[in-house]
Amino acid sequence: MSNRSALLIALAGAVKAAATAAGIPAGNQFENRTADIGSSQLPALNIRRRSDGGLSEATSASRTRRLELAIDLYGNGDSRFDVLDAVEGAITTAVLALKENLYYVVSVEVATDWDLEDLAIAYAAARIVVSIDYIA
């Protein structure tokens, strides 16, 4: 199995386990979903690959590549912010632990962008962007 395949499996497993522990049911965890997520499926998450390629600053002989994923979180109801905060924290911890557990991971960066955080709106959405540099 290639390092890329092993990384994707480990990352998806870590994210889904963290999300389940933080309160998102396994049935509401999606990969590369393009259809809208209905209110009956909230809270939910969707893991989507943004890019996977060589580093722009690397030489052509370099085996280091960068995988970028977007993990979109959706919540609703009065506890939506508490649930999403818990999920975000659990996922961030799990993703950062990958560097310690996988020898071929060079670096991990995690950033969060709250797309919609308004007390007057019944749902909230956040995006966690994960960038992982790894040896191919």
Q: Tell me the major beta sheet.
A: 5 strands, mixed
Report low-confidence residues grouped into runs of 5 or more.
none
Q: What is the tally of helical segments?
A: 2
- Report how far apart the termini are: 11 Å
Shape: elongated
Q: Which bin fits the share of residues in helices? A: 25-40%
State the order of secondary-structure elements, H for helix, E for strand: HEEEHEE
Estimate the strand proportion.
35-45%
Strand order of the largest sheet: 1-2-3-5-4
What's the arrangement of secondary structure elements?
Elements: H1 3-22, E1 29-31, E2 44-54, E3 64-76, H2 80-101, E4 105-116, E5 123-135
Parallel strand pairs: 1-2
Antiparallel strand pairs: 2-3, 3-5, 4-5
Helix pairs in contact: 1-2
